[in-house]
Write a structure and sequence with these properties.
By secondary structure, the chain is an alpha+beta fold. 18% of the residues lie in helices and 31% in strands.
């Protein structure tokens, strides 16, 4: 089934459930507020699947932020032969506020990374035009690496502001249900804050990943290349 049709059915299902006297869902625009919701009951997703290990994520409080990241995982190759293996070289992504989805529509939120991975145009435009959502404050920041091992999440353009600078402390393999893209879904991560963080967060999680893994060898590849990925980032 086409990904837009799949999402439309999901939204129609939500409309049918929320209607007080539904005989059947109607095909009208469904207005969903996505950004700027307080987070009081949102729960970090965990992997519940035989043979898979989940992240150490016993967080006692609700998250401070939940965002969707859409961008690329970046890699380098020493040469373009099968004898070389791609090496990680950071990532870059645009960050979109998903607080209302995390709080009120978690299943819908978790369905978005694989859908957005298939898009070849801007995620914000897709969300606004296709889902008829409230776009106020949707784009809240950018993600990049200050060096090959230090992820940065810059929220200075958002109302809350701040920067999260982190260090990876745990990774687990994405579940078998993840959208693999061409080569696989990148790991789920736990990231602790380090010096330079200014937004009050101490820990971040990368969960519900789609795409992002490189080919197993550098055969036929350029020295620098990118692999599209989409994920959820939860900040505590």
């Amino acid at each position: 089934m086409h990904f837009i049709q799949s999402l439309s059915l999901t939204l129609l299902g939500f409309a049918a459930i929320s209607s007080a006297m539904p005989s059947r869902p109607t095909r009208k625009a469904i207005n969903i507020k996505v950004a700027n919701c307080p987070l009081k009951k949102a729960v970090l997703p965990v992997i519940i699947e035989a043979g898979y290990v989940s992240l150490n994520s016993a967080e006692p409080h609700p998250p401070l932020r939940v965002v969707l990241g859409k961008g690329t995982q970046n890699y380098t190759c020493a040469d373009s032969t099968a004898a070389s293996v791609p090496k990680a070289n950071g990532a870059k992504a645009v960050l979109y506020d998903a607080s209302c989805l995390a709080e009120n529509y978690p299943d819908l939120l978790h369905s978005l990374p694989p859908i957005l991975l298939d898009l070849n145009f801007d995620a914000e435009k897709y969300l606004i035009k296709k889902l008829h959502i409230d776009q106020d404050g949707l784009k809240v920041g950018v993600h990049y690496f200050s060096n090959p091992t230090t992820p940065v999440f810059n929220f200075q353009k958002s109302k809350k502001g701040g920067i999260f600078v982190g260090k990876k402390i745990q990774n687990v393999t994405a579940p078998s249900t993840a959208k693999y893209g061409q080569n696989g879904a990148v790991d789920w991560l736990k990231i602790d804050a380090i010096d330079g963080t200014t937004n009050g967060c101490v820990t971040a999680y990368r969960v519900v990943t789609a795409g992002g893994k490189p080919p197993t060898t550098c055969a036929g590849l350029k020295k620098h290349f990118e692999v599209p990925y989409v994920t959820e980032y939860w900040f505590y």
